[in-house]
Amino acid sequence: MKIVVAGASGVVGQALMPLLVQEGHDVVGFTRNPNSATELKKKGIEPVILDVFDREAVFSALQETKPDAVIHQLTSLSARNFSDNARIRKEGTRNLVDASLAADVGKMVVQSISWTYAPGDGPAEEDSPLDLDAPPPRSTTIEGVCALESAASEMPEHVILRYGLLYGNGTWYAPDGYLAEQARQRLLPATRGISSFVHVDDAALAAANALNWPSGCYNIVDDEPAAGTDWLPVFADAVGAPQPDVQQGHAAWERGALNGKALRHGWKPRYTSWRDGFRLALGSASSQDSLRQDARP
Q1: Radius of gyration, alpha carbons of the chain
Q2: Which pLDDT score is estimated for 144?
Q3: What are the CB-based long-range contacts (under 8 Å, 24+) for 89-94?
Q4: How far apart (Å, rounded) are the C-alpha atoms in residues 25 and 207?
Q5: How far apart are CA 54 and CA 56, in angstroms?
Q6: C-alpha separations of 206 from 17, 35, 61, 150 in Å
Q7: In whole angstroms, what is the distance from residue 52 CA to residue 60 CA?
Q8: Within 10 A of 63 (CB to CB), how many other CB atoms are there?
Q9: If DSSP codes are grouped into helix, strand and coil, which group holds residue 252?
């Protein structure tokens, strides 16, 4: 298949494209970062420098590349630009979908999130309603996700991947990431709110698998939704942060999500729990110190 990855220089895009190349696909990477073009070429990927907000350019790029499928992994989360990220979900997705339909693209896989479900009992499954009545500022996120998922659903075939909180290289939960630094400064309290996680490599694997999945929504999360009082101390230890303070109260929508649907369709994540993932992928403070010592000349 010929696959376009929109968001080729993002954390999931970078992990995804080698998987697609290994599977024998012809891969085109859309990126707005001109500095990424050389690296993409080295990895056997055709780069296209593109601003997803330039509607005419998006139409032109898809007419020229004529892919069989588009995998939409565009975000602005690495820069913590939430307004730009909401615009990508709304306007950027609209442009990608319209251009894909015009170019007769058969399938689209899109990146969504799993913490948009309405309050309820226990972790959410895919048929749980979204939190459409959420107040600001959460409503901005919900509206963006609804726009993204609605637009993607117009494709002849569409797979919506509702990722859990991403951890691993390049994410907020990396040892050098934003939330690791917040934890080191004791600005990240532990609550009873439930979260679901997924390692970035497992998220990329799901996106590759999704090319063969039937249309619909899939929660891409590990097997263990967990309260902050459980996962945050383990995360803090992995990134060399002090043990967190405990704070009472949490939002009613903090309920986590279940991954049974994705597992039934063949997704086999390497890290089935954040417990192993934090320990092995992020590394304990002592192991990080050891690695730094070994790296010295």
Answers
A1: 19
A2: 95
A3: 89/144, 89/145, 89/147, 89/148, 90/143, 90/144, 90/147, 90/148, 91/52, 91/53, 92/52, 92/53, 93/147, 93/148, 93/151, 93/152, 94/147, 94/151
A4: 14
A5: 6
A6: 12, 27, 25, 20
A7: 11
A8: 12
A9: coil
CA angle 160, 50, 19 (to 5 degrees): 50
Please answer whether residues 31 and 72 qualify as being in contact, where contact means their C-beta atoms are separated by less than 8 angstroms.
no
**Which is nearest to 215 in space by CA: 112, 108, 94?**
108
Element (H, E) at 231: helix 228-238
Q: Fold for domain 2-172+197-223+257-270?
A: Rossmann fold (3.40.50)
Q: Which two tokens stand for residue 218?
A: 């899939």
Start-to-end CA distance of the chain, whole Å, equals 46
Domain boundaries, the chain: 2-172+197-223+257-270
Regions of the chain where pLDDT drops below 50: 284-297
- CA dist 101 and 259 (Å) reads 30
pLDDT at 33: 87
- What pLDDT, on a 0 to 100 scale, did the predictor assign at position 177? 95
Distance CA 124, CA 258 (A): 6
Q: Look at residue 242 in the predicted model and tell me its pLDDT.
A: 97
